[in-house]
Amino acid sequence: MSGSGMHTEQQRQLTHEGDEMRTILRWLPLSTVLLCGCSPPPPPPPPAAPPFTAVVNLKQLMEWVIDPAADVIWDSVKTIITEKDTKEIAPQTDEQWAIVRNGAATLAESGNLLMIDGRAKDNNEWMAAARRLITTAGQALKAAEVKDAAALFTAGGEVYNACRGCHQRYAPEQQDAAPGEARK
User: Fold this and answer.
1) Where are the domains of the chain?
2) Helix 149-170 to helix 94-114 angle, to the nearest 10 degrees?
3) Residue 54 — φ and ψ, nearest 5°?
4) Whole-angstrom Cα distance, residue 127 to residue 170?
5) Model confidence over 41-79: pLDDT tens digits?
6) DSSP string spanning 122-179?
7) What is the value of pTM for the model shown?
8) Which of 87, 127, 170, 174 qualifies as a cystine partner to 80, CB 3.0-4.6 A?
9) Distance (Å, rounded) from C-alpha 131 to C-alpha 122?
10) Which pLDDT band holds residue 36 (cuts at 50, 70, 90)?
11) What CATH architecture applies to the domain 58-174?
């Protein structure tokens, strides 16, 4: 092969390599865009803390809000037996039923107040106990709304069990106290 034939072969090889390089360089920006566009977006920032401000501490919430609301339910339906007779107590008027309804609603919403940061003792059992309070007080609320004294009595027992279960875990020093009477 002559010198000029080799020179032509080298030129073709260089031209071919140049074409390959141009093709790669053309596809590189598109590949970069596609790869970057297919990656997942960055995770969203964590949610901001709710704008709740506790006005009273846990003890005050129990004594001033929760316990009085529970007492309304517990005192609304009962049987008093004496040597002389038996007296059945239950709401009779719309006003009496409204008082029980309001107490039950207050008690149910108080379960949410127990879950606020700074009051919640933990994120497991405490939260479950607060939800039990919401559920059982909700049952009392429904019973009061339909003016069903028997259902209200049953719901009152469920509220008592919810309160007692929480107190056994988180306030064992109060276990000798009767419902509605915090030990001092």
Assistant:
1) 1-41, 58-174
2) 30
3) -70, 130
4) 12
5) 778 888 776 677 888 999 999 999 999 999 999 999 999
6) -SSHHHHHHHHHHHHHHHHHHHHHTT-HHHHHHHHHHHHHHHHHHHHHH-GGGTTSPT
7) 0.69
8) 87
9) 13
10) low
11) Up-down Bundle (1.20)
Q: 17: which 2 tokens?
A: 């390599």
State pLDDT tens for residues 136-173.
999 999 999 999 999 999 999 999 999 999 999 998 88
What token pair was written down for 35? 């790869």
What does the block give as tokens for 94?
A: 């719309």
Q: Region 9-33: what's the mean pLDDT?
A: 64
Please state the three-class secondary structure of 31-72 as a single string: HHHHHHHHCCCCCCCCCCCCCCCCCCCHHHHHHHHHHHHHHH
Q: Which two tokens stand for residue 39?
A: 């990656």
Amino acid at 101: R
Torsion of CA 21, 25, 27, 28, to 10 degrees: 130
